[in-house]
Structures are given as C-alpha cells and as structure tokens.
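note to self: dont lose this again. the chain is below, predicted strucutre after it. 435 aa total, dont forget to put it in the shared folder this time
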Amino acid sequence: MRLKARSDGPLKGRVRPPGDKSISHRAIILGALAHGETVVEGLLEAEDVQNTAKAARLFGANVVQGEDNLWRVTGAGSLTQPAETIDCGNSGTAARLLIGAASAFPISARFDGDASLRKRPMNRVIAPLSQMGARFDSPNNRMPLIVHGGKLKGITYRSPVASAQVKSAALLAGLGAEGETVVIEPERSRDHTERMLAVFGADVDQIDIDGVLHPRVRPSTLKGARVYVPADPSSAAFPAAAALIVGKSEVVIEDVLINPLRLGLYETMLEMGAKLTFKERRDPIGEPIADLVINASELTGVSPPLKRAPSMIDEFPILTVLAAFADGETRITGAGELRVKESDRITLMVEGLRACGVEVEELDDGLVVHGRGPKGVRGGAEIRTLGDHRVAMSFLVMGLASKEPIIVDDAHMIATSFPDFANFMAGIGARIEDV
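---
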C-alpha cells in the first residue's frame, strides 16, 4: 500500500491518539501472569498488541475484548506449555518480554516472528536469562528460538545497553526466580514494567548502587488489576510534529502519557523553539497524563545530549524531519539502537532525507541534519521504507509541509502501532491519500 502526503493548509483540531503500545503489551502480559481478572481500558488494538494477546491465550490465559473499550485478561498465576509456536509478528517488545516471562516457568516455548523480527538480535535477552538458568535453542541468537524455563536464580545483571526490553525480560523472569533480581543500566530506560508490577502487587523496588537507583524484584504472586492505557506519546509525536512544521497550525492532543522517561522528543522540541505546552496534568494510574497544545513554530537546530537518547529512541525518525525544517544544524547521536529496530532506521532516514533535498551526514550512531528552515524542504520523492512503520509515518508528516508531495512505498506496517493513521491525520486537516 503506497500513500502520498501533500501540503494542504494549516492543521486544526483536537485529537486523541491510540493507546500507549508499551503499556498495552505489559497490561496483557502481567494480566496473564496474575491470579484473577485484569480489566484494561483503552488498549491499543494494533497488530503488535493483538499478537501479544494471541500469545497470552496460547500460554493459558483467557483474553477477551468486551464492550465499552474494555479488555479482560484472566490468568491463573502461571504460564502453561503452549501447543504451538508463539508468533510475535513484527514486535520486538512482545518477543523479548514474553521470552522473559516464559523463562520463569518449567515449560518449553518456541518463538518466531516475521522477516524483520527474525533479523533483530535476541542475544541481549538470552544473556541475562541464561545467567539466571534458562536454556535456549537458538543457533544464531535470533528468531526462531526455543526457551526452556524454570528453576531460575536471581542475579544482578549489568546491561551493556539501556533497553527497557532487556530490563523487563529480566524482571519478569525474576518474578519466578530464587532470590532477588537487579538490573543495572548505563542510562535509565522507560520504567513502565516497574510501575505496572507495583500495581499488580509485585515485590518490586529500587536499590541504590554507587549512588544510582536500579530496579529490583523478588519472587512475587501477582493479582489482577485495573489498567488504564493513556495515549501513546510516540504516536502523538506525529501530529505534534506536523503541527509544528505546517504554517498557522494549532492542534490539541489529548490524554497523552507524559512519563518523564518518554519525554525526550518533547524536551528537544522545546529546545528547538517549539510552541508546546502541557495542560490538564493528572495521574490516575501511577503514570502521568496531560493534554498537549501545539502551535506552528520556527525551529532552530539543536544537539540533544547523549543521556536523552533512551527516552526518545522511537522518536528519532520524526525528530530528523523536524530538523530538516529547522534553521541550522541538528546533530543526533547515541542512536545506534536504531540500526537494529524494524529496519536500519539511520540509513533509511538518511536516504529519504537526501531524496527530498535535505543535506544530511550519516554517523555510526546517528546523523547530522543541515536544516533548511520552514519553507526549505523540497520533497517530491518516493521513500523506501522497508515496511518500517515509524519511517513511513515520519516521511508522510514531512510531505505535509514540503514544497512537493512525498510518497512512501509501503505503508501497510503502520497498522502495527497506529491503526488508521491516514484517517486520524485527516481529522486535523492533513491530506494523506492512497496512490
């Protein structure tokens, strides 16, 4: 499916993006691990999360979509032997978290995914889980793989990367391990797992190591809980960016998760000169929420600090688009993780930006964009996406403000995280259409 985006006047209106993907995955997984019923409101009903729901069913949980936007997950406090392969589709989050959860039980489970997921490294979760006692059949440390779980021992694991997926896999395995499990990261990654474990009654806290707090979990019995899923800040990034670069726009994005460890892009937007405010702040579920008010802005190039990278790793593609419309140089580093996402996002963004007339330099762990100002991006290209949903959405946003329309060659994978993206954007006046 090819889509084309073109400039068609200012963007206006109020919208509420889909539910947060990270919280949606975790709500289903923890609900499957818990005793009793978990009720989830606002679950992201995208392909990635649907695959997590299918996996939970194969592991013995009852997962049903009810009325009034509610999902119900009924678990028995453990995962059972699945009768077939756990297909995680395109989702690295589903794969790594479910592998961690399955490791805690005396079962053997085979995991697989699509062609993209099969290329992504699984050694980063195999390493800590193997230290805990899990065994793996995986000749190349990639999918497909079989995990043999049970009889785990807690460890203190010093992760070489700041990754919420790695941290979460170890913590979920630690729920069924003997002793305590601690994960030490070079920088803090998103903490949704720790927050939600507390909601489900886990014995989870933080331990001070060398003056820095790191998450710790002990063997725990989870109890079903009620979970509210706010709007995904990674999805909100696309209408927010569009409102910044399309002249005379004013958009309100409602109910957005503003967890401090997810706000790296928005902090960077403000540093670039964005007219962005957070209103109606609230915290109904142990996760802070607010409405975002965004107005078209004249942006200036920036160099975000390395320590901010984990808090905006998913938003680097759309940040490069903002950088193209900013005045001056934007230097993005610390993003080497992007080379092992659904695609090599660094290379794809560099290719696409150049095709649209933007001067850009590729770095090992990022890129340097030489911004052309609010009216300096030519566009007029067809972008190779390799089926990467964030690359596709980023260039469609660019097409809303470039001089010439932009086409993305394959947009079907957008549904993995943002169902009905084109119609959603049309609700604020964006012109995105089938080709």
